[in-house]
Amino acid sequence: MPTINSFIRFLHASPGTPIVDIYTDGNLVIKDLAYNDTSEYLVTGPENMHIQVYPSGTDTDPLLDTELTIPPSETITAAIIGAAPDISLLPLYYTVAVRDNDDALLRFTNLSPRASAVNLTIEDGATLFSDVAYTQVTDFQVIAPETYSLQIFRADEEERYLASGLVEVVPRYAYTVYAIGLTEGEPPVEIGYFNDLIPYYTDEVRETVFSKDTLQTGNAPRINLLYK
Questions:
Q1: Which residues contact 32 (CB under 8 A, 6 or more apart)?
Q2: Most CB contacts within 10 A, which of 29, 40, 51, 214?
């Protein structure tokens, strides 16, 4: 019988916002989440989750006080976005079908609050995604495993380069690449990413595994889902 549990983690993508503590339903669940870091996954049932974000070490005057509907059987990265005082929460849903090959997948989202639409390109190569507006999340596309030098350009002014970064793509992983930071001021626009193991069929009999990887954005965990 499939589980109805869901998993949620948080990405601090709000430029200029200090290190934060996160409360869900009145309980401190994430402590000292820094800018451009991703938390561990939390296990939750389907619910309307009350989420409050405070400057680290405080529990009054939240930076963000909102609710997020958690459907059953979802994996969500909740991105804290925007520049104070206009901070909000953007849920990034991880919906990837079970696969039986070594494909890698990649998608892109624009989390830079003052950026116009942007393009994500491979250096000296193809444009992967075009005209991605703020808060837009693309679909996943198949990408060959290798190390890529990725670049972000303004879609309406392609000679205006904004950021670059290396992403090592390995088989059976799905990568969410994002633009973060400010086009004017500090911190500047940069490329971040997190990844998750693609659920796949296997003859092994194993339980779901929770583990951490060290990535560009900090200690971002993954959930390994295997199906027999």
A1: 19, 20, 21, 56
A2: 51
